[in-house]
TrEMBL record:
<keyword id="KW-0472">Membrane</keyword>
<keyword id="KW-1133">Transmembrane helix</keyword>
<dbReference type="Pfam" id="PF13813">
    <property type="entry name" value="MBOAT_2"/>
</dbReference>
<protein>
    <recommendedName>
        <fullName>Wax synthase domain-containing protein</fullName>
    </recommendedName>
</protein>
<dbReference type="InterPro" id="IPR032805">
    <property type="entry name" value="Wax_synthase_dom"/>
</dbReference>
<keyword id="KW-0812">Transmembrane</keyword>
<dbReference type="GO" id="GO:0016020">
    <property type="term" value="C:membrane"/>
</dbReference>
<feature type="transmembrane region" description="Helical">
    <location>
        <begin position="333"/>
        <end position="354"/>
    </location>
</feature>
<feature type="domain" description="Wax synthase">
    <location>
        <begin position="211"/>
        <end position="283"/>
    </location>
</feature>
<feature type="transmembrane region" description="Helical">
    <location>
        <begin position="267"/>
        <end position="288"/>
    </location>
</feature>
């Protein structure tokens, strides 16, 4: 097996979702804004006004209409072009009630242009510092660089931090690095279209400060009135850019077998298929011949697959426990504590799979950023790549 890459398989799923499991020309509708003073053409308006939104004096207050596949070529080109690059299907009705009912989807409390840009810069700098500080740990902890060292092996002697269980600390380090890299990569690229919208060169749908956020509230992962931290993490907090493409085959199977929309069977089928394909997407991170690995490429891919394919098992456990506790009068603070403990326990169980994969891929063999405040302050080496 030579290997696949993330982008190629993602585009394959994208194509299957639009061409095999759906019929966009028949069933998809683009939600577009029209000026209140200007009536829409017959080819543009296919249904009544959907909603009216106020963007806190930052934008106009448009009316929204549903646009089916246009007959005119001039209208068809933006319809198709927008569909092809819309990974989350914002401003699209795709035949999924839970998704369509939120369209047009907008930020509930959109920030000002300046606040969005400043926040994006601050979060990027925060992610930069987090990567720098966590790298200071990975460079001294043999678990991250030496093969055969267990995630439960004793920590390096660095004072009070050794009071933390080794597995918990190492999994936290890995989680922080993923958050700092994946979680913050959406920030700076969004500043340019927001600035262009601020200057009047882009319309509302093209300005990210009005979009629903890529990431939800991490606090909301733990505050539901049931045991649901793992489900909340993936469904409410983590980015949803692959959700529709990876769940498309499962939705098709569920509809073909007439599974009720709110049944446990349908939910678990969708969760299983979504993470099945998400795992395959992510094994594209493994090159055909990893340079630093002691495991084969397929063994590393299997580690990544097991991490993603295990997530529905966490969902199932939460659903069973929540069903058992449903009749109890458990206070919300108790649920918050249960969710925090359960979330930490679950990821201490499954994150070492990614840790072993990352160790074989050489993720921690070098300092990941070219400018290091930590190394500059402690060693005088501000540019570790050139030291």
């Amino acid at each position: 097996m030579g290997g696949i890459d993330v982008i190629s398989f993602d585009m394959l799923l994208h194509s299957y979702h639009l061409l095999l499991f759906n019929d966009p020309r028949r069933n998809f509708r683009r939600v577009v804004a029209i000026n209140e003073s200007k009536p829409a053409t017959a080819g543009e308006v296919k249904s009544a006004v959907s909603d009216v939104h106020d963007h806190q004096d930052e934008s106009t207050t448009p009316q929204y209409v549903d646009q089916s596949y246009p007959a005119k070529w001039s209208e068809r080109l933006p319809w198709i072009g927008t569909l092809l690059h819309s990974m989350r299907f914002v401003d699209w009705k795709i035949g999924v009630p839970s998704h369509d009912s939120r369209q047009p989807d907008r930020h509930p409390n959109p920030p000002s242009h300046l606040r969005f840009i400043l926040t994006a810069i601050l979060r990027t700098l925060t992610g930069f510092v987090v990567v720098d500080l966590t790298s200071a740990w990975t460079q001294q902890d043999p678990y991250f660089k030496a093969f055969g060292v267990s995630v439960d092996s004793p920590l390096p002697n660095t004072g009070l931090i050794t009071l933390i269980p080794p597995r918990l600390l190492r999994c936290t380090i890995m989680a922080l690095q993923v958050w700092a890299t994946v979680g913050q990569q959406f920030q700076l690229p969004c500043c340019l279209p927001v600035a262009l919208h601020w200057a009047g060169y882009l319309s509302d749908p093209w300005s990210p400060h009005l979009w629903p956020t890529f990431f939800g509230s991490f606090r909301g992962v733990f505050t539901t009135q049931n045991l649901g931290a793992v489900r909340n993490f993936w469904g409410r907090y983590w980015h949803q850019t692959l959700r529709h493409y990876c769940s498309g085959p499962g939705v098709w199977i569920a509809d073909f077998t007439h599974l009720p929309r709110r049944s446990y069977y349908r939910y678990f089928l969708l969760a299983a298929t979504t993470f099945f394909f998400s795992g395959i997407v992510h094994i594209g991170l493994v090159p055909p011949e990893p340079a630093f690995a002691v495991k084969s490429a397929n063994e590393i891919r299997w580690l990544i697959l097991k991490f993603f394919w295990a997530q529905p098992l966490g969902f199932a456990f939460e659903m069973v426990v929540s069903r058992v506790l449903r009749g109890s009068d458990t206070p919300k603070p108790i649920y918050v504590m249960l969710n925090i403990v359960w979330f930490a326990a679950w990821y201490c169980l499954v994150l070492p799979l990614l840790g072993e994969a990352g160790r074989n891929l050489g993720y921690w063999r070098m300092w990941p950023i070219p400018l290091s405040p930590w190394q500059g302050i402690t060693r005088g080496q501000w540019l570790p790549w050139f030291a």
